């Protein structure tokens, strides 16, 4: 075996090992993987059963704190309490992310026994990606998507031809059934009495998902 061929084999082997390590990390040890495992291993309780300083998993319905001022999903134009938008540009066999945008606001989680304020900023949010679009060769981006791109300093067209773009969005919508796992705190309610708040534990993440396989 020639030295050149040996070097190629070593390079392929190293690439394969690195790819395998990345897969194992993402599948079992990443922040998202740990959040999924925590959700699957936890049994949901009702809001009436959640007590102060207790880490709980609650399944309920999302309600906006201020329905008149929701976030708006840039791709779907739907009102929501959180959205994640990704736009990728494909060139040949490679692709690059040109937009990776997320916004979050607090919301109410409601079940048949009560409601709690979810302090969602900084949470680990596992979303179902349910809005997808494409533009590129032979398919112009509609004016609404073109405007969305321009607001973020991007364009769907290159010097001559359209760029091949893939748009993806997930969102937490009002009325949607979700699961929230976090620390329950009982606090004074500005409207009087007390209220329950779900927030980030000291040693972990506040986890939120609309993925039915994790609820």
Please describe what this structure looks like.
By secondary structure, the chain is of the alpha+beta class. It has two domains: 1-41; 44-209, no CATH class. It has three helices and 13 strands. A five-stranded mixed β-barrel has the order 1-6-7-12-11. A hairpin with a 2-residue loop joins β6 (107-111) and β7. The longest helix has 27 residues, at 3-29. It starts with a helix and ends in a 6-residue tail after the last strand. Mean pLDDT is 89; it is low at 17-29.
Task: Please name the defining characteristics of this protein.
single chain; 215 residues; alpha+beta; 2 domains; four-stranded antiparallel β-sheet; 3 helices
List the helices and strands and how they pair.
Elements: H1 3-29, H2 31-41, E1 54-64, E2 71-72, E3 79-80, E4 82-91, E5 94-104, E6 107-111, E7 114-118, E8 124-126, E9 129-135, H3 143-151, E10 164-172, E11 177-188, E12 194-199, E13 207-209
Parallel strand pairs: 7-12, 8-13
Antiparallel strand pairs: 1-6, 1-11, 2-3, 4-5, 4-10, 6-7, 9-10, 11-12, 11-13
Helix pairs in contact: 1-2
